[in-house]
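Predict structure. Chain length: 383.
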Amino acid sequence: MNTPLLPPPPLLWDVFCRVVDNLGDIGVCWRLAVNLATRGQQVRLWVDDPSALHWMAPGALEGRIPGIQVLPWSQSQQTDVLDKCPMADVWIEAFGCEIAPEFIATCAHSMGARGLKDLKHPAWINLEYLTAERFAERSHTLPSPVMNGPACGWTKYFFYPGFTPQTGGLLREGNRVQQQALFDRCDWLQRLGIPWQGERLVSLFCYEPPALGEFLRQLQEDTTPTRLLVTSGRASEALKNLSPIGLQPLSIQRGQLSISYLPPLSQADFDHLLWACDFNCVRGEDSLVRALWAGKPFVWQIYPQDDNAHHDKLQAFLDMLGADTTLRNLHHIWNSVTPTTGGRPWLQPNLDAWQVITRTARERLLQMDDLASQLIAFVWKKR
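Prediction complete.
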């Protein structure tokens, strides 16, 4: 009789994160840590500014999330602390952040002192930014030999999240679609104190799109009542800085547009926001992926770059999405690829068509292995 194969033992992962701006980096790293932990892995998240986790992931800093330990980045530079840490099986440098030299040297010295030079060093992965551009497929899992320092002779590997089977896939929880099917938006909105009366719901999570004023004007004048749910931070500040929208109470109404300002949302409640709304305005990397999994029509504000390099990245994403002309035009206006002009219909005529586009893309992406599963498989292949 054949003996059933046992699952491989869990690995210890060191995930390194530097918070640069807008909290997308810590948001992605925390979701990655949770995805790994729910697959039986053990994770140490080294981060230089963990403060956002207080509201983004309640309980994280207190160690209440099974399988995950959050550690200050400064300790990755303290050899007396590192000497007491078990050596990890995997290192992940997120978004090009570099592991502290002291951390690398301590690991290399420990391996040498214990006669482990000939054994495998930690699998070393540079987790890149998400893009639909073709170079992600060409560069995915390429090796990068370390040419100097205490880790000379070791190898890093580039790992590209992406939208095709030739990339590392997207972060995804195994039960997310089933959870969304059970979601009750009336209860959720009531819990947040939002006075919803059945009007169209639109979420706003953005930077400062120049088209925002025109967007609000058209919602005010539309024939369909809309409630705008505004996330805290840059989106709420952008809205309050617009005249005559600014300097208003937390819940206001102008014409057909009602506005509700939200408190900081945990990652779970941010997903609930996307599920609850009929149309979502999202920005950056993490919320783009969550908007795709939500399967609702959305517009994405890509992080702007001075040389407009983000325009190519946006076009590649719209090609992947299979966006029609109206959805492309909306993205071009929202991202200042083309100028804003008055009189353009934003939502009502196209929501149904845009939802079909999003859900078709979602079904295709659900057929791919998720990012955490691909990382685990890749690491075990290299061991």
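Summary: The two ends are 29 Å apart (CA to CA).
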